[in-house]
Amino acid sequence: MTSAVTAPLERQFGQMSGLKQMSSQSSGGASVVTLQFQLTLPLDVAEQEVQAAINAATNLLPSDLPNPPIYSKVNPADPPIMTLAVTSNAMPMTQVEDMVETRVAQKISQVSGVGLVTLAGGQRPAVRVKLNAQAVAALGLTSETVRTAITGANVNSAKGSLDGPERAVTLSANDQMQSADEYRRLIIAYQNGAPVRLGDVATVEQGAENSWLGAWANQAPAIVMNVQRQPGANIIATADSIRQMLPQLTESLPKSVKVTVLSDRTTNIRASVRDTQFELMLAIALVVMIIYLFLRNIPATIIPGVAVPLSLIGTFAVMVFLDFSINNLTLMALTIATGFVVDDAIVVIENISRYIEKGEKPLAAALKGAGEIGFTIISLTFSLIAVLIPLLFMGDIVGRLFREFAVTLAVAILISAVVSLTLTPMMCARMLSQQSLRKQNRFSRACERMFDRVIASYGRGLAKVLNHPWLTLSVAFATLLLSVMLWIVIPKGFFPVQDNGIIQGTLQAPQSSSYASMAQRQRQVAERILQDPTVQSLTTFVGVDGANPTLNSARLQINLKPLDARDDRVQQVISRLQTAVATIPAWRCISSRRRI
């Protein structure tokens, strides 16, 4: 496969423009080539180039290749939003596969937002013919003779035509064979005037198209459906629509057929968004509390407090205009912005309060204070936005990820500056007065004494630092060196590992392992994994398909219970499962990865 199929294809693929990376895996009967393109290249253009490269390599491939090369588009950043398993304790898996492909998958594909439904563990129904070599040889036949007879009889073509003076009619007959019994009666040759039927030289039985491919859900044979969304579709809305449709779909199936949701990305997305929303609300509450702690005046606290929701609401409006979604990155930007958006308002309030305390009327103090500090606010705003500019122009996948974060944060800071220079002075003119600023209670007096002590301590510390300049510079230089050393030592990565409750792994057996032994071994592995109290469901795959190029390896996906229902983190679970699986003979330990 490597020299006859993979190499010619790779030579043609290597000539494509925009190709960033190419890798391949080949086994005795399959070859998988993975192509990664530059993000600036439209996927439709890349698809056309791939098809052209395959066409150019056709003449270089073996003439007896059973099937021509095929390709599919894959977005590694957009894994399936939902994984379903269809099982039955009464129907054969070939019938379940046919039902899933013709009814269930088509119904789910019609849901708004669903882009693609793929099946794994395929047991597509087929008629399997096992030749008896001795019987074939005794009749003077060859396997090629039998194959030609089967191929010719299975072609559903026109049987002839009637051509009249005015009309021509094509004759067709519904004689295509569908069952194993019909194939057994197929005449493949004649010996001494007597027909030789396929059943005389072969065992013909109803089975699966690929008997070396299987999937199991919680140790039960299953057909696994992976549902992917359309580009730009809302994941949560799409998943909710599928879940609403599932009860009605299940009722239309035989009672022995069960549809189970194995994994749902929206569970982790909802939990993550909830956590970020809570952090955002907590940040707003803490900011308002700190403002009151330092200003010690309710009207003066309300004024910058109003700037927070107004800035965030204005940012939401811009996000809608730019077609941004509320996700972890945009919510993180809003959370960080919560601390920035009040800075300008506090500076304006402090300057206006200073003039009011000097005896100026509130309106005059607001005009004078805001005009005096306006240029400073503008310069501070643009200096903060300038820090985010490099994120806007970063390339590759990092730039795509952090663009929404940078734009959201920059917009929030810009809107807060506008609010501070317009609404904040107006509210100060209406809500602040000499009486309100001078009014103190027991809490404000206690805070005042505490701040006086802090200022006094700071003064003493500053005096000591100024009296020992060389020691201060030495400490600063040592801190700089330590920072550089820590930068070198600290582990680096693209994204921190997140516990999203999904473990994906590969189980490796000896090269000579058969499908039957692989199926038996995966049952042993599944039994031990499902004994772990943190495991909610398990899906295993054995056989050669688009994601698994060799027969001696098996894929598995472990779905853990929600974080609030388990005590162990995902890394602890992985270590425990590796130890449990390692005791099974002739297996390599799980190599796992967690999706972000």
From TrEMBL:
It is found in: Cell inner membrane. The keyword Transport applies. Keywords: Cell inner membrane, Cell membrane, Membrane, Transmembrane, Transmembrane helix, Transport. Coiled coil: none annotated. One of its GO terms (molecular function) is xenobiotic transmembrane transporter activity. The chain crosses the membrane at residues 278-295, 302-322, 370-393, 405-429, 470-490. InterPro entries: AcrB_DN_DC_subdom, Acrflvin-R. It is a multi-pass membrane protein. It comes from the Bacteria. Its main location: membrane. SUPFAM superfamilies: Multidrug efflux transporter AcrB pore domain, PN1, PN2, PC1 and PC2 subdomains, Multidrug efflux transporter AcrB TolC docking domain, DN and DC subdomains, Multidrug efflux transporter AcrB transmembrane domain. GO terms for cellular component: plasma membrane. This is RND family transporter protein. It comes from Salmonella enterica I.
